[in-house]
Amino acid sequence: MIAADPVSMTQKADLIDLAMLSDRSIEHLLEDAAWLARLQAEKEPLPTLRDGTTVATLFFEPSTRTRNAFLQAAHLLGAQTLAVEAESASIRKGESLEDTIAALEALGVDVIVLRHPQAGAAWRAAQVCVQARVINAGDGTNAHPTQALIDLFALRQRFGEIRGLKVLVLGDLLHSRVARSDLWALHRQGAICLASGPATLLGPLPPWVQQVTDPDPVLPEVDAVLLLRLQRERMEEELIPSLREYRARFGMTSERAALLREEAVILHPAPVNRGVEIDDAVMRDPRTLVFRQMQIGVFVRMAALRWVMQGGIAC
Amino acid sequence: MIAADPVSMTQKADLIDLAMLSDRSIEHLLEDAAWLARLQAEKEPLPTLRDGTTVATLFFEPSTRTRNAFLQAAHLLGAQTLAVEAESASIRKGESLEDTIAALEALGVDVIVLRHPQAGAAWRAAQVCVQARVINAGDGTNAHPTQALIDLFALRQRFGEIRGLKVLVLGDLLHSRVARSDLWALHRQGAICLASGPATLLGPLPPWVQQVTDPDPVLPEVDAVLLLRLQRERMEEELIPSLREYRARFGMTSERAALLREEAVILHPAPVNRGVEIDDAVMRDPRTLVFRQMQIGVFVRMAALRWVMQGGIAC
Amino acid sequence: MIAADPVSMTQKADLIDLAMLSDRSIEHLLEDAAWLARLQAEKEPLPTLRDGTTVATLFFEPSTRTRNAFLQAAHLLGAQTLAVEAESASIRKGESLEDTIAALEALGVDVIVLRHPQAGAAWRAAQVCVQARVINAGDGTNAHPTQALIDLFALRQRFGEIRGLKVLVLGDLLHSRVARSDLWALHRQGAICLASGPATLLGPLPPWVQQVTDPDPVLPEVDAVLLLRLQRERMEEELIPSLREYRARFGMTSERAALLREEAVILHPAPVNRGVEIDDAVMRDPRTLVFRQMQIGVFVRMAALRWVMQGGIAC
Known about the structure:
Three copies of one chain form a homotrimer. By secondary structure, the first copy, chain A, is of the alpha/beta class. Chain A folds into two domains: 6-144 and 297-309, 3-Layer(aba) Sandwich (Rossmann fold); 146-294, Rossmann fold. Chain A is 36% helix and 14% strand. In chain A, strand 3 (111-116), helix 4 (121-128) and strand 4 form a beta-alpha-beta unit. In chain A, helix 5 (145-159) packs across helix 6 (177-188) and helix 5 crosses helix 10 (290-309). The A-B interface holds A 40, 46, 62-65, 68-69, 71-72, 75-76, 83, 85, 87, 229, 232-233, 270-274, 291-292, 294-295, 297-298 and B 52, 54, 56, 80, 82-85, 88-96, 99-100, 102-109.
């Protein structure tokens, strides 16, 4: 589970949290994803994983795009897939996560892509497996490493490098594993991180993040705004007065988008609550990269699958 | 979205509604399906789609046979598949159909096979996509073009041509996209169309359809009876007094089947409510083609996939 | 549906119940599974099924491991798969099992792997199909033939042969298709069968099974204990006083495991209710083969698929 570097070459590589990876591994993942995107764009043949490789997705939370991006990535690399439906699975029969993971390993699965509502679930799963590699596709409010890689990819593609970029993370940070993974990765790569959102939805912020109460004054200065989805399904009580007020104060309305510079970009991990976090008109703004992020997602997941199958070596 | 003909060769081909296709395209689809059925019967190798083609099924209504017929068709043509479970998907998170479609396109999906409870959904989906082709697998009470192609195929296989055939559509026309698609296609190909069913379930009929109150007098004259499933899950209130009375007046009982000529055929899009629309004994009647229709379904879906991937050119 | 032997070579082979197979067929299945396991261990190429073979899983009960073991087995043999979700299927529209099976056959499916809550369902399904072979993946409380093959495989691997082994089946025999299939197969292969469990959960036992009220006195004598899962989802009323009492009297606690001989083995079909049928510590005991059984499961299912596709010939 310790990742990536020559010192740990003999260990199984899992992709649990970017904070566990060396800079060199992160660099390798991003460059590999860029290479794969180039091959695909030029209609060159894609590399394949070892013959007979099986990738299983095990999702304990609903997902369209993340699960299907991993399945599509596996298909493009020539792997077989098992899409395990957690809701109709043995979990109903009272089985523990650990036993479900061990069962998948016993079937000969090579990579388990896990989404789970509990923080730390991916780590626990990785410890259960002797051979199978685990990729964290989101564990509770903890981490979502491939989403952070997507956002780094998108920003590097636009700006060349991350160092010195000013990035505002806007919205429900409290419930967001995307925010946690992105803030860590952006900081590590040298970006200046700002955060804004309803006071009830900010939660404790890392020391390197500058909190701004009102996003409007900083919008003209930032290079990127990372919008977060209002995770209404995670909110146990009403943490915001109304969606209307949320939009008025923190939504990416046309008026707010007009404050952004021409070169700035707007990111969102999707799915999007249109008319809440972002207006329809701004979704059509060329600075909004939501669907570009999804395209990048397939290449990042291909790179992640290749990386864990190659033992996490940053070569 | 405009289909099929040389004049629209540069446009993306979608299969939304047979009424949008030229006669030449319909002819091409039927002939291609017949060719594929012949190859399969003779155990000849089947043609394959472009390497790396991905077909996604996105079903917002339950389905066994239509979804699996498309998946099987895609497999036989060498394509990869993604079976997107709409019920456990981002839709729960409040995402619009348009954004779900755009996400699938961003994943690199080549064909989206959509079933949706709203009429017009497939059309809207096709307009969202720049590259991905959309095949309508049923949109509300609007259209189900591949089912109509199956029925045309079955009738042509039995009778050589459709022109001049007398076809009775029997049952719940009000809720039936199959009835709408079939009546249009049969009329276009020159059949004489009759319709019968409970007055509450007939709805407005096209002008070329002759309504008959009691089906029995016309049964000895018709070449084919197209039975429709009682769509109990679509009925908001009790539109029929009882299933027993429905069967007595409109069900294909052994007594009614005995009124049909020896050469006549009985079609049903399935799934069948045995003992309601059709009796067990009639299901075993050699004139009943229900399972033959399902076999044809795979070849028609293969032809549909090939047609949209080839740009809808009627070649 | 009549299986396996030269006398029935011209009939379609289905795998419904081991009691319908000749000794020679059972022997062939076990040897084929062992050969496949050896190929896989030595990273030799695996044999493939006829090009274009499609295997459908149709599960009317939740399952992670059995369904995915069959899907994985099909993939390793180069087959296409259709995982039919019974819960979101036409069954909701009132379709009978027979019509669902006939629909899958009409799609060109070669093998249907069926799990169903009613005893006899697999037999009925096999009678519906003209071409498609049916493998019973569990029908009510009746049979689960591939699980019994797994257990025979595990015991032979450990002890060389079954003849003369003393095997205790422990737990909820009343609701267990695994118990029924295993007791038959073990007896047929010459094992001495004992059974123990709460009186309310024993049910009628075959005459060759020796019932023991308290398992403890026999534990030092047995070669294997086959634990059964407490099928709480099948119990219509409270048949046991409490899980705590069940564990105290029949659970494989560390104390009971200490009574077993060094060479004995502990089997469980999984999923496991840890702390009820078996303690955490015993799950880690090297004599416990639960995850080994799952690994064997893939090879047994590959052998089953090959056997039905080859016409059940014991060659």
